Amino acid sequence: MANVSDMERVSLFDRKILDDVDLSKGKCNLLDFGISPSNPGENLCMRPLCSDDHEKDFIQLLSQLTKMGDITEEKFLRRFNAMKAHTGTYYIIVIENIKLGKIVACGSLIVEQKFIHETALRGRIEDIVVDDSCRGQKIGKLIVETLLLLSEKLGCYKTSLECKDPLLPFYTQFGFVAEPDQNHLIKRFFH
């Protein structure tokens, strides 16, 4: 497999999709703080995940969430290309500190195609992480709000996420609620 440096930089999805997200429809009033997908902060750029982000510490950022294992550039590109092949399913956004050339925050929206609700779409938000050095700048809120509004714009009938109890107050400010009589169950096959 060719090295990223030998290839043209490829985005996971069209950047224009982020430009069309209307933050004024969000719950967190982020525009009042002067941040948006086109202006996430000084030296910061919000954009889709790109094929050269392995070298920009994307995997190291994700390791602040969970155990990662050895994700070589080749493995990263193989997964990136598999996700890109499923147009309309994977929307991974990153915030890059362009001065440092480093990914400092990210989040994912996965859009499932369903048969229920007249062949509706369902969104799932996952892998929200902000680098320790960038917390407190509202970029985590910007990522979640952007993904939620994108989900709505794409026509998802609902969007869900999983989080640990200490993070409930953070996510409820976006309008997430626990559904009555619902349980989240999981079965892990490996650690």
Automatic annotation (TrEMBL):
A Pfam cross-reference name: Acetyltransf_1
What pathway, per the record? Nucleotide-sugar biosynthesis; UDP-N-acetyl-alpha-D-glucosamine biosynthesis; N-acetyl-alpha-D-glucosamine 1-phosphate from alpha-D-glucosamine 6-phosphate (route I): step 1/2
Gene3D superfamilies cross-referenced by the UniProt entry? 3.40.630.30
User: What InterPro entries does the entry give?
Assistant: Acyl_CoA_acyltransferase, GNAT_dom, GNPNAT1-like
* Entry EC no(s): 2.3.1.4
UniProt KW Lyase keyword: no
Please report the stretch or stretches of sequence annotated as the N-acetyltransferase domain.
48-191
Enumerate the catalysed reactions: D-glucosamine 6-phosphate + acetyl-CoA = N-acetyl-D-glucosamine 6-phosphate + CoA + H(+)
List the SUPFAM superfamilies hit by this protein, alphabetically: Acyl-CoA N-acyltransferases (Nat)
UniProt keyword annotations, A-Z: Acyltransferase, Transferase
Top-level EC class as recorded in UniProt: transferase
Superkingdom of the source species: Eukaryota
Q: Give GO terms for biological process.
A: UDP-N-acetylglucosamine biosynthetic process
- Key word Transferase present in the record? yes
Q: Which GO terms describe its molecular function?
A: glucosamine 6-phosphate N-acetyltransferase activity
Please state which protein family the record places this protein in. Answer: Belongs to the acetyltransferase family. GNA1 subfamily.
Query: What PANTHER family does the annotation carry?
Result: GLUCOSAMINE 6-PHOSPHATE N-ACETYLTRANSFERASE
What name does this protein carry?
Answer: Glucosamine 6-phosphate N-acetyltransferase
From which source organism is this entry?
Answer: Actinia tenebrosa
